[in-house]
Design goal:
This is 1-acyl-sn-glycerol-3-phosphate acyltransferase. It comes from Streptosporangium lutulentum. Keywords: Acyltransferase, Transferase. By secondary structure, the chain is α/β, with parallel strands linked by helices. It is built from eight helices and nine strands. Helix 3 links the parallel strand 3 and strand 4. The longest helix is centred in the C-terminal third of the chain and has 19 residues.
Length: 237
Amino acid sequence: MFYWVVKAILGPLLHLIFRPWAEGVENVPKDGPVILAGNHLSFADHFFGALFLRRKVISLGKSDYFTGRGVKGLLSKAFFSGVGTVPIDRSGGKASEAALRTGKRILNENQVLGIYPEGTRSPDGRLYKGKTGVARLALESRVPVIPWAMVNTFEMMPPGHALPKLGIRPGVKFGKPLDFSRYYGMEEDRLVLRAVTDEIMYALMELSGQEYVDKYAASAKVDAARAAKKAVKRPHP
């Protein structure tokens, strides 16, 4: 209920201020379980990704969003609950299995599950290598995957910016459903999981027009931080 209240309040304001656009909304089925696999460009994706859909999109988000203290913590919890985010532990290992179980439960309830296969926001607007959790969910739950591409949200609200820039129209594109039924029963095969994930990322690349980087976004962020640290320590001539 809270999700629809937030959407009813924010929706008209977002349309009025930013004039967002969408393509391929008809590709999202009106009922039944489905995975929306999206690129992750900006914090603004949480606002515009599901704006044009009449179905609730439930996404998996790090538990830190729900455990903060004070007023800021309460606001964070309220916001992410309002945009349909379910808290999960993303530390890896057993936590990853728990996240997959949560995703399967959502799909078993015939709902729409939104996933960002890159695992984190893009540091530079490019599309990074996808993690195979999305493939496992698709094969184990036997549901279609719809590429879900955000457009212009990086330019509108790049990393480090607390407020979006005006004058940039954000968009979202929904691709044709991807059918992976030929791989059902093969969800334990790592090569199959990688092939399915790469097919999803390729569809996202074509839909979004982004440059693809065959590297995990989290690793790219670590490398960039190390390079910046070395640059600071390097003595000036």
